[in-house]
Amino acid sequence: MKQFIKNNLPYQLKLRYRLLQRFLAEQNNRQSYAKNYLKENLGDFRIDFQQSIRNGEFYDNKIHNLKIVCEKINNLVIQPDEVFSFWKTVGAPIRKNNFKQGRNLIKNNISHDFGGGICQFSSIIYYSALQCGLDIIERHSHSIDIYKEYERFTPLGSDSTVVFAYKDLQVKNNFPFSIQFKCIIEENHLFFNILSNNKINLQKIDFKYFEDDKGVWVETLNNGKTLFKNFYIRL
User: What pLDDT, on a 0 to 100 scale, did the predictor assign at position 10?
Assistant: First the structure.
């Protein structure tokens, strides 16, 4: 059945099928997703993260897309046991929702599509959540390592790709207190903050690398304990 759908259905029908699958799975899980916002700061404790936004192909479009995502995520409050879902918060990255075309990785190839570049936002949230000790419910790594070592702004393995309906980033607040996401795009920097009424102690996150002739395996560790192991094709 899955192979038939993959090979025969038009893309829009595949998309609807995937969305239906997710909906039914979520109904069974009875998971509560974050959807409330608070304009003022939730608490006095604040953890700051930032990344540079590198200039390149579709740079202006990427800034535009990241700002749309930022508007959707800024001030979001995640209550205890609630889950942050990237796609439930951001919505479909399509022209109708004001997204522009940008660079994307599609089927192991560098291409372009609407919403291109927003994986940098899902990645900073993922890496921040790792360091804060939040539960990672769903996360997908990129299939290709597109950077040279001197080009990196975060370690290989700290990424989180998102594909609407297919690949989401979902993070659960496992603390007994609420947290709040704050973010802003200023010039060529993405600033992301996690606020709370209680102090959050950062975790020690390390990455170990094992290379072969096709690419590199990356093992993600929290205080020495393996969390994930992913493979990246080297161009």
Answer: 63
